[in-house]
Amino acid sequence: MTIGRNAERAAWAMLLVAALAVRVVDLGSRPFQHDEAQIAYFSWLFEQSGDYHYQPVLHGPFMYHAMAAGFRLFGDSDFVARLPMALAGLAVVGLAFGLRAAIGRGAAFVAAVLFAFGPTYLYYSRF
Fold first, then answer.
1. DSSP assignment of 16-69, as one string?
2. Beta-carbon neighbour count of residue 103 at 10 Å?
3. Which residues neighbour 105 within 8 Å (Cβ) at sequence distance 6 or greater?
4. N- to C-terminal Cα separation, the chain
5. Is 93:116 a contact under the CB 8 Å cutoff?
6. Residue 76 carries which DSSP code?
7. Segment 1-10 long-range contacts (CB within 8 Å, at least 24 positions apart)
8. Mean pLDDT for each 10-residue chunk of the chain (127 residues)?
9. Is 3 helix (H, G, I), strand (E, B) or coil?
10. Count of CB atoms situated within 10 Å of the CB of 75
């Protein structure tokens, strides 16, 4: 028996809501790691002064621009500093939807569940 298209989309929507919840609940409570602190600090400086210089020993510019935009829109906090990475992790869960034609509907959904709740990926997509 195959699952109907509406039921499948409802399952994907519920999975994305659950994946969002596990990424943002209590997001700002832990202390920053060294790498997180550097990115947040340089993003905060960028948001304050508008001055950004690429530093090859650190990450590429997207993280700094996304975090600075978050600081500009929502204020500076640990939660806001981690929000762009949490949303990027959520996007990967959603991208599995596009794999349905290549690997099958069931396998794509299982991959999305693993991206949503797999401990290692969840850990790294929260900061």
1. HHHHHHHHHTTTT-SPPPHHHHHHHHHHHHHHHH------TTS--HHHHHHHHH
2. 12
3. 3, 8
4. 40
5. yes
6. S
7. 3/105, 8/105, 8/109
8. 78 96 90 87 90 80 91 93 93 93 93 94 82
9. coil
10. 9
The Cβ of residue 105 has, within 10 Å, a number of other Cβ atoms equal to: 17
CA distances from 60 to 36, 41, 88, 108 (A): 14, 15, 15, 29
> What is the distance between the alpha carbons of residues 118 and 127, in angstroms, rounded to a whole number?
15
What pLDDT is stored for residue 125 in this prediction? 84
- At 104, list the tokens: 């099958």
What's the CA gap between 20 and 3, in Å, rounded?
24
Residues in contact with 113: Cβ distance below 8 Å, sequence separation at least 6, in sequence order: 15
Is this structure's pTM higher than 0.70? yes
Side chain identity, residue 30: R
Both tokens of 53, joined, read 């210089």
- Among 27, 10, 42, 6, CA closest to 80: 27
